[in-house]
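Entry 14. Structure prediction run on the chain below.
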Amino acid sequence: MKEEVAKILLKLEAVKIRPWNPFKFTSGMISPIYIDNRYVISFPKERKQIVDYLMQLIDEKNLEFDVIAGVATAGIHWAAWLAARCNKPMIYIRGKTKGHGRQNQVEGKLEPGQKVLVIEDHISTGGSAIIAVDAIRDANCVVNDCIAITTYEFEKAKTAFSETKCNIYTLTDFTSLIEMASDDGIIDSADKDLVLKWNKDALNWAKHNNIV
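Output returned:
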C-alpha cells in the first residue's frame, strides 16, 4: 500500500521534491518536499484509488466507529467519500469555534458517547488533527484513531499523538515517497540521501547543507 499510494501521488505531482530549489512553509521552515493531497481530488480514477486504500486501512486495523469526522478543510472531502462508502454519519471539525451563528466548532450531528474516526489528508506536526480530536472529546465522544493519506514522519507528531492517546495510521509516508522518487528516477542517489536528512532535523536542514 505504501508504495502504490506513493506512486499515485508522485505521478500526479501532488508530491513535489526539490532539494536544491526548496519550498518555504508559512512557518518559515525550508523543505525539499511539498505534499498537496488536495490536488488529487481533481482526478476521479486516482481519488477513487485513494478512497479504496483508506477503506482497506480501516479494515486492516479493524477500526470501529459510529461517525466519520473530517478535519477542516483538507480532510472534509475524504471524510465525505468514506462516510458514503461506509454508510456512516459524517461531521467536520473547524480549526477553532465559528465566530458567528451557532458558534460551532463541530459541524453536524454528534451524540455524547459516540465513537468517532478522524480523517486528515496529511500529518505534519499533527496539530490540526489533535485540535479535532480534542474538540470531539470535549463533546463527550470517544476518539481512538485518526487516519491520513501521508505523513512527514516528524517525531513531534508521533509524540503529540502518543500524548493525546490517539492512534495515527497513514497510507504512505515521507520515507516511502523518497524511496519511490529515487526508484523512478525523479531524484538521484545523492539527492535522495540529502532529502532523507530533512525530517530528522527540519529546522536546521537548509543551513547544515548550505541550501539557500
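The mean pLDDT is 95.
Filed with the rest of this week's runs.
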